[in-house]
Structure formats: structure tokens, C-alpha cells
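dude i think i finally got it to work??
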Amino acid sequence: MQYSRREFGLMALSGLALSSRALAETLIGGVRIGVQSYSFRELPRRAGGDATAAIIKAMGDTGLNECELWAPQIEPPSATGRGVAPEERQRAREAVRRWRIETPLDHFRGIRKQFESAGLSIHAYNYSPDASYTDGEIDQGFEMAKALGAEFITSSTTLAVAKRIAPLAEKHRMVVSMHGHSRTDDPNEFATPESFAAALKMSKYFKINLDIGHFTAANYDPVAYLRAHHADITNLHLKDRKRNQGDDTVWGQGDTPIVAVLQLLKRERWPVRAYIEYEHRGQAGPVEEVRTCLDYVKRVLA
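look at this
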């Protein structure tokens, strides 16, 4: 189909307007809001492929244009759960390892192009090595992240594995932000202020991905921690949980000070991104639940 110069110009202007609206939708009260793509984990994969298309559509439907991409959504599915024989689980694990090491980086550049064509960005790659990862797998995670266009990696890992990640972060000169949970009973887990401090001592490229829901469930104060350590925090995960290892809840029904955290970011203008992570048991489906969370953010930052 041929377009006149005038028609082409109108299309370009329309695209610019759409891009501006998307940016305005995501920058709220001076706070950069995005989404952890784990929020869309219930959405189906493309037959024989990954969840890239589903994530892109979901982000478009919510109005969010920036994400932290959860690695399992673009990797081959792993064999887990009840009824899976150990040998089958091991075969699947080896297949994923080969996929991570052998997949050409153009594959990840292609995923980046799909996001960018939709006006979206992958700002962080959530790649979480455990003790079973080889050094080659860990190293390749940095290459994947760069090919995806990610500015940094977030990682749900352990202190022991972080020691193996540190020299590779130095090699690639890429930030890795440690994601905390609430397992304060395990000294190997990232859950306490002390565990984050230990990571920061390992490498100048180590930072913090503070999950304010988990931090609250572990009976710590995310507002005070953010105020004291904002320079070492790349991004937050926004969710609501009860204290004392309590459950995830609908936003506003738990103990997590989401309002105070967002208003602190707005007031101080720190360059800390805040990513919605839908994890509670909602009734409307992941896209609508994320949209509801975004509406909550808008009200708080109005």
C-alpha cells in the first residue's frame, strides 16, 4: 500500500502522540512506574514459544511502557511440580542450560525489537541464578541482558551465589540488583538489611531491588530503609503483604506502606523506579489486576 507524504506525516505525528501519552501514563507525579512481567505469569505462551507477545499486549492494555522482564517467560518451560519424575526434571534442567548457553544473542535482540516496536522498553532483566547454575550460565545472563537492552539485572539469588556473580558483574561492568524475600530464618537469603549490606561489600556493581511487600512481611520498615539507602536502590517492587510473614493482600488491605513509599519518591525525586508486581490472589485476571494497581498508584501520586 502506498501512502502520500501528507498521510505519512500524519501517521508519524500520531505515533509521536501515542508515545507521549505512554510516557505521561508511566511518569506519575515525577515517579517512574513500570511493571514486573511476573505479574503476567498466568497469561499463555505462544504455541511452541515464549510469552513475549502476551507480555507486550498486556503492557499495552495496562498503559505501562516499561518493564522488568522475568527470565522464565522467555526461556523454555521447565519440568516442575508434582508427579514429575526426577530424571525428567534433570533432562529439562539440562535442556534449559543448553538453551541459555547456546541460543544466539540475536534471539534476544529480536525480543528487544518486538518491545521497542510496540513503544515499550525492557529496563531490567530478572535473571536469578541458584546453586545449580554453571559459571557459563551466569555469564551468559549478562549477555542476554545487554542484548535485551536492559540497563541492569535483578536477581533473586543467595549470598553464596552472589559471590560467584560478583566477578562476572565486574567483567561485564553491569549492575546486578539483589532482590529480597522474607526468609529471615535463612542466613543465605537476601531478606535482612544486613544481607543487603553484605552484597554491597562484594562489588561496586551490586545494588538493591527492594521488594517493599516482602520487606514488610519480614518486619522491617521500607520507608526508613528507602530514606537511608536510596542511593543503592535501583528499583522497588510494589505489593502489599501483612507483617509477621503474612500473606499477599489486595493493595491497601495489608501492612505495607505503599502510600508512604510512593509519596516519599515523589517528594524526594530520587531516580528509583517503582514496579508493580501483582502477586495477591485477585479475581479479575492479571491485566485487570495490574490496571487496578496502577489506578491505586495514580490516586496516591495525584
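The domain at 28-301 is CATH 3.20.20.150 (TIM Barrel).
im so relieved honestly
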